[in-house]
Design brief:
Elements (H helix, E strand, L loop, with lengths): L25 E2 L16 E3 L2 E8 L20 E5 L13 E2 L18 E10 L7 E6 L2 E2 L1 E6 L2 E7 L5 E4 L7 E10 L12 E2 L3 E2 L3 E6 L3 E12 L2 E11 L5 E6 L5 E7 L5 E7 L12 E7 L2 E7 L4 E4 L2 E4 L2 E2 L2 E5 L13 H13 L4 E3 L7 H10 L2 E5 L17 H7 L11 H15 L5 E5 L8 H13 L4 E3 L20 E4 L3 H9 L6 E6 L10 H10 L3 E6 L7 E5 L5 E4 L27 H9 L3 E7 L4 E6 L6 H4 E9 L2 E8 L12 E5 L10 E9 L11 E8 L8 H7 L13 E4 L3 E5 L3 E6 L4 E7 L2 E2 L3 E6 L11 H7 L6 E12 L2 E11 L7 E9 L5 E9 L8 E9 L4 E8 L12 E8 L16 E11 L2 E16 L3 H6 L11 E10 L21 E11 L5
Parallel strand pairs: 26-27, 26-33, 27-28, 28-29, 29-30, 31-32, 32-33
Antiparallel strand pairs: 1-22, 2-15, 3-4, 3-6, 5-13, 6-12, 7-11, 7-15, 8-14, 9-10, 9-12, 16-17, 17-20, 18-19, 18-21, 21-22, 23-24, 24-25, 34-35, 36-37, 37-40, 38-39, 38-41, 41-42, 43-44, 44-45, 45-46, 46-47, 48-53, 49-50, 50-51, 51-52, 52-59, 53-58, 54-55, 54-56, 56-57, 57-58, 57-59
Helix pairs in contact: 1-2, 4-5
């Protein structure tokens, strides 16, 4: 082996690396563009690009000293840096959530440890004013050895942190050769067991910094407030001896706000700003700091802010705040861990657009520029150490109860003194690098490691070094109950995915620390369905400072396109790996390519900047509450309003400055709107909150959210629905009563312009022809199955055990008679399946008029031995030419009883294909709820479904069986029909894929119910 086994040595984490320091980019003169264009600094030399590369299946196969000068790399491949080598055909992808992908035997990793040898040739020009050279790696997974010009530079680990080496004595003018050996696994991998794809390589930037012989090495900025002043303290350390520093602070207009020059006293500079403007996520005001020292200038930005806890409540700049946040991984379907500045900006722009105000960097530090963008755009950040040893709770245990697992979880690592050095190192790497970022308000020690002596030390160091920020660590709950631990340096009580009752219980016992949900509302697939419920509890208690949805984006590997052009995304298990956790990595609010899920739209409107509290229709007076923490409402939004009647706009307007009252943060205010309400029709008032002025990321006029309220009038029914429900008079009386024929299996009902066939053995219509147009391509069905959503991952086992997915209808008795010129069919039937007993008993009454209109009334009784139903309704297989949908209900996006805040009532039209929400793992999708009617038309025929009671429907080109069976969306095959599901109701969505069970009020667990629906075919001449 050509390298020592540092990668299995818990007490050799870094060799020859520089001490930790804050991130900054120096230059020879003041430059103010280095956040996004650090390459413009004359002291910065980027080494990214095409490197020579060779992959080895094992470290033991690396027998040649490839790092030597003159080594022939002719048989090496080319690979981009930054990059993860699995994305370029080497090794293979692996996704695992909790379990280690290797034996749990710390500090040892697989002996056959895959690795990659990198070589880069570059030309270096010395700068006499900056003769020192420092080599920086911002991210390498998992560990690496470095050589320059054949000489050993050093070793480092901790994948998502910066490693810096002094290479002044090794670098030379002109041609240089840099060589790096990157190993897939090291002892640090036991602390990097995050829920993500496992990728390897140099995945962040590599660069050189040219520095003077004397100057600033590190600085730590803290701020405090006192009356009308802000005090800035800069603790400065130097290369060698102290030298004079000139420190200048400028406001956003470029005016000098403070300054000091000279030798720091006790290593400190003090500056004072009069009448400071404070930083917060709504108004991210930044000052610019310029540090001039010898032959070097450092430009940085800072915000004046303070976060504190008083009486168990989190205050920011003296105001109570709520985090409406998300967890964000560095993830891209093409580049993997490699995330460019543009990719960061895309994420942050989408977050702002959807009312996200906080980010948890799960579960490691992001690239340093990410935090500078958060400073600028305005986000509160929980900055998390690169530390997760979740796999230590997956060992074999004879007693594998939850209690036993939690009791032993901390023994291997979290409460093992052998890992204290590594744990504290990861905390220091986090804090030291990002300590000057105003957006970072909470330090998190890591994720899901359990608790013990290692975290006691990490928290103690963190709190002593930086008492100005709060500390967080959710897994402090998991520990040996027979030992006493120190939690005094932990500021927040954190939970993942608690039941709402758990939050009430915690607040009720007055435990003292603020409650934060570092993860909640698991956004996997069609979900989450409980955001509004959590919002209400957050709002109920000041001690609850908010939460962070899991998670921002779906993780997947882009694999190109199918022959018909559909993108292919792969997840766990698609690479032949073991172990893996399937599609559990696809649990985000956006797809891998950053298209928003409907769950993100739901989040946006739950966290809208204002809410309609009440409306007095007689006075036409609205009461609004400002949901902002620091901004007066009329300074942030203009308000648009729209009155609709049965979907048609009957009035609208915009309220600007002069029309809006003063509504302070958290306050309420009233305003009056003047509009007329039609006497008939379903009328709604929709209030829209529109961005008032352009911001860095959003354009004025951007929709930030809406409220709607049902208006009262003489007849509040949808008039199209009334028309469709009404008895037909015109020309109907001239028609003969439908003729009835029957045999042992069927009833044949023949009218003037229709012919229907009813199956007496199933209790459903077998065939329907209207005006010589086929309406049913397959027999109608009673439908209780839905393709399980990701959030049904546990309840679906009960559903399948109950054979809901194999259900059929079985009729026992059918009668048919003519009544008042109509045909009435009565059937007693059950819904059942092979093996099991009856699930439902149904008394079905079908009435057929002379005009072919079909009325169904279904009296349903469920055997309560069975679990909650996925749904109940009718399934119709219409001709695929019937491909246009018009409906009145909630839209335009999919919605369910607990996932509907992104929708409003209206008249919507779409193609059937457009109604499908294309989740990467197929599942139930596209439902529209609270509908008065739906009309499907095309191919010269139309069919409407209408009911006096609001119902739900799906229209799709796919069957639920196809959605259940297929593992990837690109494998789906259209059915050849328009599949129309008319539902009495569906089970709720929830977030039980990694959260509490669906709440009782959303479970479809009724014992008795009645579903009434009318099917109205319309002749081609009337279309």
């Amino acid at each position: 082996m050509i390298v020592p086994k540092h990668y299995e040595n818990l007490h050799l984490l870094h060799e020859n690396a520089m001490p930790n320091r804050a991130y900054y980019i120096p230059a020879s003169k003041a430059r103010f563009d280095l956040v996004e264009h650090r390459e413009n600094s004359d002291r910065f030399m980027l080494l990214n690009g095409t490197w020579k590369f060779r992959y080895y299946d094992s470290i033991y196969d690396v027998n040649e000293e490839f790092f030597q000068e003159g080594y022939d790399t002719g048989n090496y491949d080319d690979i981009p840096v930054p990059g993860c080598f699995q994305n370029y055909g080497y090794d293979k992808h692996q996704y695992t959530n909790v379990r280690y992908p290797f034996p749990m035997d710390p500090p040892y990793v697989p002996a056959e440890n895959p690795c990659g040898a990198y070589v880069r040739h570059f030309v270096y020009e010395r700068d006499e004013n900056a003769p020192r050279a420092y080599l920086n790696f911002e991210g390498v997974d998992s560990c690496f050895y470095v050589w320059l010009n054949g000489s050993y530079v050093g070793y480092s680990q901790v994948s998502h942190s910066t490693s810096e080496f002094d290479v002044t004595g090794l670098i030379r003018e002109g041609e240089n050769t840099l060589a790096v050996l990157v190993l897939k696994w090291c002892d640090g991998s036991y602390l990097e067991d995050q829920d993500k794809f496992r990728m390897t390589g140099i995945f962040r930037d590599v660069f050189l910094l040219k520095r003077p012989e004397e100057g600033i090495f590190d600085y730590f900025l803290t701020t405090s407030q006192e009356e009308n002043q802000a005090h800035i303290q800069a603790v400065i350390s130097f290369f060698g001896k102290e030298v004079p520093v000139k420190a200048l602070v400028f406001d956003s207009n470029g005016n000098q706000a403070a300054g000091q020059e000279g030798l720091p006293q006790d290593g400190r500079l003090h500056l004072t700003i009069e009448n400071p403007v404070l930083w917060n996520a709504e108004q991210p005001y930044l000052y610019t700091l310029v540090l001039v020292c010898g032959n070097e200038v450092i430009v940085d930005r800072l915000g004046i802010r303070e976060i504190a806890i008083r009486d168990g409540v989190v205050y920011f700049n003296g105001e109570k705040i709520k985090f409406h946040g998300v967890n964000r991984h560095d993830s891209d379907p093409v580049t993997g861990f490699v995330v460019s500045l543009e990719q960061m900006k895309k994420d942050l722009s989408l977050m702002k657009e959807h009312n996200v105000n906080a980010i948890r960097t799960s579960h490691y530090p992001n690239g340093p520029q990410f935090y500078q963008l958060c400073d600028e755009y305005g986000f509160y950040v929980i900055d998390e150490a690169d530390n997760e040893s979740h796999g230590t709770n997956s060992i074999y245990m004879e007693d594998c109860s939850t209690e036993a697992v939690h009791e032993r979880w901390n023994r291997a690592i979290a409460d093992n003194p052998e890992f204290t050095e590594a744990t504290v190192d990861r905390a220091k790497l986090l804090v030291e690098r990002d300590k000057n970022r105003s957006s970072v308000v909470i330090w998190s020690m890591g994720n899901e490691c359990a608790y013990g002596c290692t975290f006691e030390e990490a928290l103690a160091w963190t709190k002593a070094f930086d008492p100005s920020r709060l500390t967080h660590y959710e897994a402090a709950r998991y520990r040996d109950r027979n030992k006493t631990y120190d939690f005094s340096n932990l500021d927040l009580y954190s939970r993942m995915y608690p039941k709402l009752e758990d939050i009430h219980e915690y607040i009720g016992r007055n435990a003292g620390k603020p409650f934060i949900l570092c993860e909640y509302s698991h956004a996997m697939g069609n979900g989450p369905g409980d955001l509004e419920d959590y919002f209400k509890v957050f709002d109920q208690y000041d001690q609850v400072c908010g939460g962070f949805v899991w998670e921002w984006c779906d993780h997947a590997i882009y694999q190109g396109r199918t022959l018909d052009g559909r993108p292919m995304y792969l997840y766990g298990g698609d690479h032949g790996e073991y172990p893996h956790d399937g599609n559990f990595c696809m649990d985000g609010l956006v797809y891998p390519d950053r298209r928003p899920h409907t769950g993100l739209m739901e989040f946006k409107n739950v966290y809208r900047p204002a809410r309609l509290v009440s409306y007095d229709q007689e006075k036409k007076e609205l009461v609004l509450q400002n949901r902002m923490d620091f901004t007066e409402l009329r300074d942030y939004v203009v308000i648009g309003y729209e009155v609709t009647c049965d979907g048609a706009v009957t009035g609208k307007g915009i309220l600007c400055d002069g029309d809006l009252p003063e509504i302070k943060p958290h306050g309420k205010g009233s305003l009056t709107l003047d509009f007329e309400v039609p006497q008939k029709g379903k009328c709604y008032l929709k209030i829209q909150y529109l961005l008032k002025q352009n911001t860095t990321l959003l354009k004025a006029g951007s929709l930030l959210g809406f409220d709607e309220i049902l208006l009262e009038n003489e007849d509040m029914r949808n008039q199209t629905g009334v028309f469709l429900l009404a008895e037909r008079e015109t020309n109907v009386g001239e028609r003969a009563c439908p003729a009835i024929r029957e045999d042992d299996r069927y009833l044949f009902i023949d009218g003037t312009n229709f012919a229907y066939t009813y199956n007496k053995l199933t209790g459903c219509f077998e065939d329907m022809v209207f005006e010589n147009k086929t309406l049913l391509e397959r027999p109608m069905e009673y439908n209780i199955w839905r393709a399980p959503t990701d959030n049904d991952r546990y309840i679906k086992n009960k559903w399948m055990a109950a054979h809901y997915d194999r259900s059929i209808s079985r009729a026992y008795e059918t009668s048919c008679e003519e009544k008042d010129g109509r045909v009435e069919i009565r059937t007693m039937l059950s819904v059942t399946a092979a093996v099991i007993q009856r699930i439902l008993m149904i008394e079905a009454v079908w009435t057929i008029g002379k005009d072919g209109i079909l009325d169904g009334k279904l009296h349903v009784k469920k055997d309560m031995e069975f679990p909650e139903l996925p749904r109940f309704g009718l399934r119709l297989f219409l001709p695929k030419t019937m491909d246009k949908v018009t409906y009145y209900g909630l839209g335009p996006v999919e919605n369910y009883m607990d996932k509907k805040r992104a929708s409003y009532h209206g008249l919507f039209t779409a193609g059937v294909k457009e109604m499908h929400e294309d989740y990467l793992r197929p599942q139930e999708n596209g439902s529209r709820s609270d509908c008065d009617f739906v009309t499907i038309n095309g191919g010269g025929v139309s069919l409407s479904a209408v009911s006096e009671r609001a119902f739900s429907f799906n229209a799709s080109v796919y069957t639920q069986e196809e959605l259940t069976e297929k593992a990837h969306n690109y494998e789906l095959t259209p059915s050849g029909f328009t599949v129309l599901c008319l539902d009495y109701r569906q089970d709720g969505i929830g977030s039980a894929s990694c959260g509490p069970d669906l709440r009782k009020e959303y479970r479809f667990d009724e014992e008795r119910f009645i579903f009434e629906v009318k099917l109205v075919p319309i002749a081609p001449s009337h279309l």
